Amino acid sequence: MKLLNASGCLDALTAPEVARSLDAFVTKTVTPLPRDGNAPPRIAEVEHGMLNSIGLANPGIDRFLAHTLPRLGELGVPVWVSVGAFAIADYAHLCDRLDDRPEVEAIELNVSCPNVDDVPASVGEIVAASRAATRKPLYTKLSPATADIAEVARAAQEAGTDGLSLVNTILGLALDEQTLRPRLSRGAGGLSGAALKPIALAAVYACYAATGLPVVGMGGIASGRDALELIAAGAESVALGTILFSDPGAPARIRAELASEIAGLGVGETDNAIGLAHTETAPASESPGAPQRCLPSKHPCKSSTFFMVDGLAPLVSMRRSCQRSRLRPRHRSARWISAWKRSSGRTTFASAGPS
Amino acid sequence: MQSERAEVTGTEQIGPYTLLRVARGGLDPGIPGQFFMLEAPGRPLPRPMSLCLAPPAELAFLIDPIGPGTRALCALEPGDRPAILGPLGNGYRLDVERPLLVGGGIGIAPLPYLSEALGQPPAVLGFRSELHAEAAHLVPNAEIVVEPTYVTEVIPPGHDVLACGPEPMLAAVAALEPAAQLAWEAPMACGYGACYGCAVEIAGEIKRLCVEGPVLAAEAVAA
Questions:
Q1: Which of A231, B24, B27, B127 is deepest in the core (most CB within 10 A)?
Q2: Confidence class of residue A112 from pLDDT cuts 50, 70 and 90?
Q3: Which of A9, A43, A192 to probe the B interface (max B CBs under 10 A)?
Q4: What is the pLDDT of residue A336?
């Protein structure tokens, strides 16, 4: 499990100590040309979160590569570069420019900013073009504002993305208390913070089940418990956003809280909690004492039979077994899920998750 | 960047404003004009407040309860422990020969600490009402005006002006005194350059006020 920041929620050069408390720093989205961003005011607090309409303010790829990236590379923190554009060729161009830069560990494709007017091309086409332009790991950041995010995730997977970043903000509007006019100059803005957490959970849950891809989960994480829930929904890593604004010490705090949560769960390592939400809990009458779960008898990529087991230890051993086997159960499990659903007529699924 | 939970030691009503006092703990008061992010209980985001006074072992902030966050801060009680981050941003340059402090409304907040640092220089303060003007006693050697008279009508020439107040006042001061140092404000979520919410045009470029300011030379900002 890695702890990252959500793109646009931290400047590692003005707060290097915060960046160093993360496992990787994700840059603010870089576009082909410099952008000033939207006119102020561009943030507004709302109940249970905030709105932003920053508008992808950034120096552009040329200045980023010449001035920003070398300084980021000196921080000693792995750097993920978020890129955004308004044409497929521009995404590919950005990935190509980053491909030979050793400072870059991974590229995040921002195909989902709610604060710009131009509508980006289809996710599948963007990912395919980007995939052809770089050997760096590609994470595709999706918007929850879609009828079926799992379908979009599958398109990204088929086009070659290595992982998913879930989720970007979702459009919201706040009106001034006195004037009843929009508080942001642009009108609506991206909603983040606690209000986004259930939306992020739903997206991670659906995309994990649909693709089995590694997921960076983000949206309203403010505690170790929040992080645990996203991990249980299927996130392999988690990213902090709005909480960093009010608590720059959040990475260390949330790490400690998560460790405590994991210890209480009794699953050993944090990675063993990935996808736990996809397992079924036994009815209360069948498990009066220790928690029991209905689990596949073997890893789902090998079998679809079920039996009852006590606790979570068998789940842990199955995940480790699959890691040793070098199988790619993330991808297999998604197909297995579909097959199992068809054969059983069930709408819920018990999976041991990715190994 | 220091952050800690600071115990509230008391609150004092001054006209419509509240002076919030907290134990200083390990926090550095910083340079006059710098600011702190104060956790507003029950709100998602902290609020930026410039330091008003730095009595021994304490920090004090003058707060105008105009919204949910500032109201929550004014409702803090002794013993509460809000998280405080700071000092942040760039304060006033103190290497001035003939300082004159100019403040308007809640914009007088950083001036008591600034006055102390500069040896209690003369000040001109403007308020919208006599009630608001009760806060003037925090600033020594102050000439006070109340609307419809504006502070810009009583600024004597030949001084190094250090000002803080509402945007129209700062724009008027900048027109009179291009070399003035002005403390601006903008909505900000973080105070340390992370959110990009406090963007303003500085010297022809869009920059973050929390990183470049909040105190800026008058000629640097297109008011």
A1: A231
A2: confident
A3: A43
A4: 38
The answer to whether the beta carbons of residues B16 and B135 sit under 8 Å apart is: no
The model's pLDDT over B188-213, given as tens digits with 9 standing for 90+, comes to 999 999 999 999 888 788 889 999 99
Model confidence at A305: pLDDT above 80: no
Give residue A312's pLDDT band: very low, low, confident or very high (50, 70, 90): very low
Class of domain B92-176: alpha beta
Q: Do B44 and A44 touch (CB under 8 A)?
A: no
Among A18, A37, A244, beta carbon nearest to B206: A37
pLDDT at position A354 over 60: no
Percentage of residues in chain B having pLDDT higher than 70: 99
Let me know: does A116 contact A168? Beta carbons within 8 Å.
Answer: no
Question: Taking CB atoms and an 8 Å cutoff, what residues of chain A touch B46?
Answer: 245-246
Question: Which one-letter DSSP state was computed for residue A305?
Answer: -
Q: How far apart are CA B121 and CA B110, in angstroms?
A: 14
CATH of domain B184-223: 2.10.240.10
Backbone angles phi, psi at A230, to 5 degrees: -65, -35
Which pLDDT value is given to residue A120? 56
Beta-carbon separation of A45 and B189 below 8 A: yes
By Cβ distance, the residue of A17, A49, A245 closest to B195 is A245
* pLDDT digit string, tens, across residues A130-185: 999 999 999 999 999 999 999 999 999 999 999 999 999 999 999 999 999 999 99
Q: Which CATH superfamily is domain B3-88 in?
A: Translation factors (2.40.30.10)
Give the containing element (helix H, strand E) for B78.
Answer: none
Over the Cα atoms of chain A, what is R_g? Answer: 21
β-bridge partners, A139 = A108, A163
- A242 contacts on B by Cβ (under 8 Å): 44, 189
The tokens describing B168, both together, are 């129209």
B198/A14 touch (CB, cutoff 8 Å), yes or no: no
In which residue ranges of chain B is CATH 2.40.30.10 found?
A: 3-88
Q: How far is CA B154 from CA A272, B101, B115, B132, B165, in A?
A: 70, 12, 19, 19, 15
Which residues of A are marked as active site? 113
Most B CBs within 10 A among A45, A50, A175, A185, hence the mutation to make, goes to A45
**How far is residue A220's CA from residue A217's CA, in Å, rounded to a whole number?**
10
Mean pLDDT computed over A58-86 = 97
**DSSP letters of B94-159?**
---SSEEEEEEGGGGTTHHHHHHHTTS--EEEEESSTTGGGGGGGSTTEEEEETTS-GGGSPPSSS
Which domains are present in chain A?
3-266 (3.20.20.70), 279-344 (no CATH)
- Share in percent of chain A as helix, strand, coil (round to 5): 40, 20, 40
Closest CA to A327 of A346, A303, A306: A303
Q: How close is the nearest chain B Cα to the Cα of A248, in Å? A: 8
